Amino acid sequence: xxxxxxxxxxxxxxxxxxxxxxxxxxxxxxxxxxxxxxxxxxxxxxxxxxxxxxxxxxxxxxxxxxxxxxxxxxxxxxxxxxxxxxxxxxxxxxxxxxxxxxxxxxxxxxxxxxxxxxxxxxxxxxxxxxxxxxxxxxxxxxxxxxxxxxxxxxxxxxxxxxxxxxxxxxxxxxxxxxxxxxxxxxxxxxxxxxxxxxxxxxxxxxxxxxxxxxxxxxxxxxxxxxxxxxxxxxxxxxxxxxxxxxxxxxxxxxxxxxxxxxxxxxxxxxxxxxxxxxxxxxxxxxxxxxxxxxxxxxxxxxxxxxxxxxxxxxxxxxxxxxxxxxxxxxxxxxxxxxxxxxxxxxxxxxxxxxxxxxxxxxxxxxxxxxxxxxxxxxxxxxxxxxxxxxxx
Amino acid sequence: xxxxxxxxxxxxxxxxxxxxxxxxxxxxxxxxxxxxxxxxxxxxxxxxxxxxxxxxxxxxxxxxxxxxxxxxxxxxxxxxxxxxxxxxxxxxxxxxxxxxxxxxxxxxxxxxxxxxxxxxxxxxxxxxxxxxxxxxxxxxxxxxxxxxxxxxxxxxxxxxxxxxxxxxxxxxxxxxxxxxxxxxxxxxxxxxxxxxxxxxxxxxxxxxxxxxxxxxxxxxxxxxxxxxxxxxxxxxxxxxxxxxxxxxxxxxxxxxxxxxxxxxxxxxxxxxxxxxxxxxxxxxxxxxxxxxxxxxxxxxxxxxxxxxxxxxxxxxxxxxxxxxxxxxxxxxxxxxxxxxxxxxxxxxxxxxxxxxxxxxxxxxxxxxxxxxxxxxxxxxxxxxxxxxxxxxxxxxxxxxxxxxxxxxxxxxxxxxxxxxxxxxxxxxxxxxxxxxxxxxxxxxxxxxxxxxxxxxxxxxxxxxxxxxxxxxxxxxxxxxxxxxxx
Lengths: 392, 486
Known about the structure:
Chain A is α+β, with helices and mostly antiparallel strands. Chain A has helices at residues 7-20, 71-80, 102-107, 115-118, 153-157, 191-202, 216-221, 237-251, 262-273, 296-305, 327-339, 351-354, 365-378; strands at 24-27, 43-46, 55-57, 62-66, 83-85, 125-132, 137-141, 165-176, 180-187, 210-214, 228-235, 257-260, 284-290, 309-313, 318-324, 343-348. In chain A, strands 3, 4, 5, 6, 7 and 8 form a six-stranded antiparallel β-sheet that branches. In chain A, a hairpin with a 4-residue loop joins strand 6 and strand 7. In chain A, helix 10 packs antiparallel against helix 11 (327-339). The longest helix of chain A has 15 residues, at 237-251. Chain A starts with 6 loop residues before the first helix and ends in a 14-residue tail after the last helix. Chain B is an alpha+beta fold. Residues 477-486 of chain B have low confidence and may be disordered.
């Protein structure tokens, strides 16, 4: 493994690999190696030694971190100033104890429950420094919150799984962490009714920042006897009290509404964020599906028919599914998601699934042609994580 | 003086054939070739620059857009996409050998879905038109550029438009879920949809703000948000720019994110007060307009906290609105800023840099020095929460020297923005206006990397040629100067 401690080291490693046309596996700490399609190369280039937080300007809502900084270290630094990462990136329980890097979270564009209200990781990447497959250092964006100067390569790098270049440093917008968190909870709803309740909450003027439904099996993993449907408010204490009260009123027609305080809320939403409600057995696969919220319950129902468990976040629009990773189950998920106009990711799966052409949603040929040209524009020799997102 | 590429003589020579080809693809009403009817399209919001196009087409469907682009691609004809023509950066400035594709006839709202909180609209729907269609049901579309009455969502996609409420609600890129994009080859691509996250590369992310370099958006799926219970504004005036800047830091540092946090300097206060009689304090050096939202009790609580913070910075005056009417009065001067400057100066340039907010006092001091050097007045309006600075440079367009000085002054301000860690443009876009300044912010390596992405979408560099990227042999032909408007 090559693990340089500065950007010049990244440049040297990529330069050598490009000259020799030797493909590289690109990773931070490797926690997400099981996502998407597998890469097999003789050499790995890691950002794990590129650590540190060169800039934190709390009043400007800006932080810069080197790509190999652990997510936990960055979150701790922000917490000292009473701030947090806006998209609430997950620490998926099934990744094990392995720490993950800031670069890895950006490269996979992972967001937590707050995404429904405040946007995804991709919405808060204000600047990047990266070394492309041409071994050139480029910057895009900057350290300010509003910037439309030139093509937004930050967006292109976010979610690119290390296939365009290796990010050395990222600059993120951050926000003050809320003073209080509150939750309203309904027990025993079916998924379709739950999504109606969540839609009512999200369509209210009370700035709901989390909206999830855990069917009975998922709720049981968190100690609840029946399914739970939950909506979150994060704000100043007096606002949380007021808004939770109003949400309870909106939900009164759906059943008895329970209210959770800050401590209980933080624990519950952390579990939702981290996919902790999935009770995983050895060999189980994990899928993540993004659809329009009202389509979520049908995906969940279909999956249950295929012997899978799961739950809904983002008001119904994010479906976590888990169970035996058979090809029939995958094909059924892909088909149902396509019908609903959505997209899917494999977060953990046997190699048979990860090598399928539909491991990621297939592209129309015109899109694939552009994608190949864009990838070649950054990495003409095709040495960075080849095959990670698409077979060709 | 900004150079545009030499027109392709082979295209100019085929003018009649191009007109005929376009007429074969579109209804007669959708093709404009008569010079008197082309005239309204010769410029946009950067009206100092004018150029008659080869033709204007006004397609009425995605398929028609695709047919036009396929035709232009096959015939090597350049294309300039256009929404309402409100670009302040010359983003829709025509070229002599280009077909302008005007999107204003694609102005229908195709779907509104409150359960899943989105709307599907055609590119020619105005920004405000979206909010108007859903506000009776309590919803709104968040980005609110000053031109929102006229500007179109397709143009907002092109420029990644912002507005006064970005600090809380983000810009266009944060509020779009899906785009139907037509490539120069005439392929119709569906990017995103009505769902939140997309797999693979973030095509929407690179298309939004690409200023028509990568394709033409014909249909857009936007996020709808539920409007808050209410909003209320307050005004705080201070003895110096620096004190006002520190007050902004203290507000953000307290954990409050106001929905709007607008800063005006002394010249801006005076111009706006003379125009709008909004009751602004004329003895202040700097003024903040701060807006919060929520229930009446929540507004009271937040404004109380903010007032307490402002009180620590020796304010000249603090005025907390007690009603929607009083809030409107506080906003009246700020919203009339362009008209106000227009009244005291024959012409003005509206600049659009972004700076780290901590550098505001230094930046305003140096802009003041430049103002004296150039002998031109300047008023500064600043989205203080997000660092987006709009200096309004006053000049006389009938005086070529004044015009030249104003452009040089503007360029110096933008270079200063980059020098202190900011950028050339926060929300207006590069267009032709800032194209030649791109090398101030980016290395040639970085520009070449962006150019390669452009080439991956548009190998012939036919889409909005000569905008965004400094001209370079191989991507554009030899530049020729374009005259300023007479």
